Amino acid sequence: MPHAATRDTLLFHAPALPVIAIERLADAVPLARALVAGGLPVLEITLRTACALHAIRAIAEEVEGAVVGAGTVLSPRDLDAVTAVGAQFAVSPGATPTLYAAAAHSAIPWLPAITTASELMVGLEHGLTRFKFFPAESSGGVAALRSFTGPFPQARFCPTGGIDAARAPAYKALSNVFTVGGSWMLPKAVIDAGRWDEIGALARAAAAL
Fold first, then answer.
1. Where are the domains of the chain?
2. What is the tens place of the pLDDT at every residue in 30-52?
3. pTM beyond 0.85, yes or no
4. Close Cβ partners of 120 (under 8 Å, ≥ 6 residues apart)
5. Is 127 exposed, middle or buried (0-12, 13-18, 19+ CB in 10 A)?
6. Catalytic annotation on 44?
7. pLDDT tens, 56-95?
8. From 23, 44, 61, 188, active-site residue
9. Which residue, 159, 172, 182, is CA-closest to 18?
10. Among 36, 127, 129, 170, which has the highest number of CB atoms less than 10 A from its own CB?
11. Is residue 64 flagged as an active site residue?
């Protein structure tokens, strides 16, 4: 199972996984520091913005205690790029044969996303047992994940997509969920205003899941 021990060490100790789109590079380091100080050290920086790779590098180099990973990894080229800038793990919103092949030889662990039992079985065939469940709320949510426990007892999930502070506890209570991903602790207005103390307080609440 490629990178299984490393993946579990990184992600199983994340009470919640902030999914972060960095719009301004200047926000990357103070935002990451606020989240780490609030008890959320494992961070997923999505490749949805022009400065994402620069943000990953800055956090990796400057924020003590941060475990920075990359999200929205869509291709082997993306996987290589995030590895080069210091990402410690990679997350995808789905999975493809080429990504499975690339991840088998990657220097960092990769978390593919699944929605259906068939997609999960493909991942298991590749030796993986840890997956993102995305988009969680529109794909059956808590009930869907609970239904996976019978036929797939070895699988564990990070549900992401449409989850807010009110919904997160029900996911975290499931036996096959190791962390919950989302952006509910990252209000855009608060980030835009640079109110890092408020981000820290929201992180502490999320860390208490």
1. 4-207
2. 999 999 999 999 999 999 999 99
3. yes
4. 114, 131, 148, 152, 155
5. exposed
6. yes
7. 999 999 999 999 999 999 999 999 999 999 999 999 999 9
8. 44
9. 182
10. 36
11. no
**Rounded CA gap, 78 and 74, in Å?**
6
Residue 129 CA to residue 156 CA, distance in Å, equals 6
Instruction: List strands edge to edge, sheet with 17-20.
Output: 110-111, 90-91, 67-71, 42-46, 17-20, 181-182
Q: How confident is the model at residue 6 (pLDDT cuts 50, 70, 90)?
A: low
4 pLDDT exceeds 90?
A: no
CA-nearest of 107, 136, 97, 127 to 17 is 136
The CA-based diameter of the chain, rounded to the nearest angstrom, is: 47
CATH superfamily of 4-207: Aldolase class I (3.20.20.70)
